[in-house]
Request: fold
Amino acid sequence: MTLRIIAFGAHPDDCELKAGGVAAKWAAQGHKVKFVATTNGDVGSFVMAGGPLALRRKAEVERCAEILGIETQVLDIHDGELMPTIENRRTIARLIREWQADIVLGPRPYDYHPDHRYTGVLMEDAAVLVAAPFFVTDTPPCKKNPVILYYSDNFKKPCPFDPAIIVSVDDVIDKKRACIEAMPSQFADKDSWMGRYLPGVPEDDEARKNFIRDWLIDRDADVANNYRDLLVQRYGEDRGRQIRYAEAFELCQYGSQPSARELNELFPM
Reply:
């Protein structure tokens, strides 16, 4: 069975950071994966904005899609201006239906950034409607509600992240590194978002690129360490203890509710 997976992120880089590893593994198995950025990222820099930045970031994630072996799309909504409107609900529902997704990924609606929060809200709001035949009637409904899952995060209120499935990405971590390096507008340039935002970033161009890339990759190491018991449960004691990098996902209660065994079968090892 060929799975169809669609992942939503608020900006052109979010899906790549949160699900780039599992996407690469699914794609290598012949499954169909699509990343969607719900905004064009046109204010995500300290020195440029508008159309030039939006085009640059679109080109960056298109390169990432080539690296991962997937498809990608960037919606033309201004960065920082995503709202949970009826029209945007229709857009998200259409995208899920057009892809006929078996699995939908996205952020939890508890995040520091409004675009992240509202991407999560829109994903949740579309959960039931993707199967409703008289909603957005220009697009055939999904035959069944997809399985919907959230990316990992460290936010504790109103409730902490509760992983249902974890995936080792050790074997594809070089692809995630390559994706990070393919997005210098965010993760390498002196005036990129991380170049200015992170403390202790080196001034030297090469050192700065390496510092930011390693800081981001270390977040996957944190996932592996924080949920080591889940890795041991899924991969066995010996391998589970040795895994360095992982991505984890929480099951959303609004979509289909697979059993633990079924969820394990949907996700690559």
